[in-house]
Each structure stands twice: as C-alpha cells, then as structure tokens.
Amino acid sequence: MRNRERTRDRILKEAMDLFLGFGFSRVTMDELAFRLGMSKKTIYEHFPSKEILVRELVKGAIRDIEREVDRIVFSRRMDFVEKLKQLLSFIGMTISNFGRAFAPDLQRKAPEVWREIDEFRKEKILANFGRLFEDGVRRGIFRRDINSELLVRMYANTVQATLNPEVLSELPVSAKDIFDGIIRVFFEGILTERARTEHYRKGVIEGTKRSKRE
User: What are residue 207's phi and psi, to 5 degrees?
Assistant: First the structure.
C-alpha cells in the first residue's frame, strides 16, 4: 500500500474512533491532528473539511454493512429463520458499535450525511428484514399480529439503551450475555406457538449432539 493510502486510512480509522466515542460535533480537526501526530494541513490534503471526512467514513461503513447484509440474505447455507436471526444479531452489533453519541449528533449537525444513512437503513436493512419476516409469516413460523418495522425499531432501541457502559457496569453479566438475551427474547417472541415448540425441540436436540461430541 502506498504512503498516501496508508495515511488516508490512518486518518479514517482515528476519526472513526473519536467520532464514535465523543460525537461528530465535539471532535475538532486539531484534536484529530494531535491524536495522529500529524499536521492539520496533511489531514486537509486528504479531506478538505470535517464534513467530507465524516461522509467518507459513512460511505465506508455503508459498504461494509451492505456486504454483510447481502452475505446473510443471499446465503444458500442458511434457512430463512437462521437468516433472520443473524440479521437481528448483525443489526444489534452495528447499533452497539455506533455508540450513543455519534448517530444523534450526526443527525443534528450533519443532516445530509444522516439522510444517506437513513435511506440506506430503509432500503437495505428494513426492506430485507421485512421480506424475511413476511416469508416467515406466510409459512406459519412468525406471528401475523406483529409489524416488522415496529419490531426492528423496538429491537434497535433496546440494544442501544442496554449496551452502554453505564448499564453494563450495573449488571452482573457480560455484554455478550446481554446481547444473547435480547436476541432470544425478541426472536422467540415473534414465533408462533407451533414454531416455538419446534424451535425448543431442535435446540435441545442440537444441544444434546454437541454434548455427545464434547
């Protein structure tokens, strides 16, 4: 990798860490330059403004998220139930990684960039989740009395409210245990009674097989 590309990648990585930790508006280019040990002039040679920098960060994040969503949705190795579970898991991890400060701050201070995120959320994540969910409803796996978009919003809010340092410090369990619990409650809550029975039976069988192998 050439020096210019390495410098650009360093700037993007450090900026992402700072933005996620403190929010978009609170981080200055002076602070970024200090953390990187380089001059602001060097940063501006790659990114003429903080808005352009955050736009590039968002574009990169969207590409990575789109790649993972496509991997899940178009997988031939998973049935649609497993796809939905993995999509829920990926949504949760993405939300927790974005932190509590960055998204609301971006929405207020850089509305054009936020609009790109919001459009991607609707067109890619919610649309794919909705299709998988409706497929499950048609097959009698998921309940008909649940709105798929409302479910995703409830799930997103729960993950964001729970997986933060303040809450984690008060609970005697790990972040992984909390996340697994959220997934279990939301996923099993949308199953029909018949599907829930089959789901538990399958889980017991798989658990037994794992125990025998171990």
Answer: -65, -40
pLDDT of residue 214: 42
Please tell me the distance from the alpha carbon of residue 199 to that of residue 119, in angstroms, as a whole number.
34
Name the fold adopted by 78-213: Tetracycline Repressor; domain 2 (1.10.357)
The domain limits of the chain are: 78-213
Amino acid identity of residue 135, one-letter, is D
Given a contact cutoff of 8 angstroms between Cβ atoms, the answer to whether 207 and 183 are in contact is no
Do 26 and 64 meet the contact criterion of CB atoms below 8 Å apart? Answer: no
Structure tokens at 116: 């790109």
Closest by CA to 72, choosing from 140, 122, 132, 141, is 132
On whether the CB atoms of residues 80 and 132 are closer than 8 A, the answer is yes
Handedness of CA 149, 152, 155, 159 (dihedral sign): negative
Q: Please give the Cα distance from 34 to 11 (Å, whole number).
A: 11
* Whole-number Å distance between alpha carbons of 168 and 186: 20
Q: What tens digit of pLDDT does each residue of 76-131 get?
A: 888 877 888 888 888 777 777 776 678 778 888 888 888 888 888 878 877 888 88
Instruction: Give the predicted TM-score (pTM) of the model.
Output: 0.70
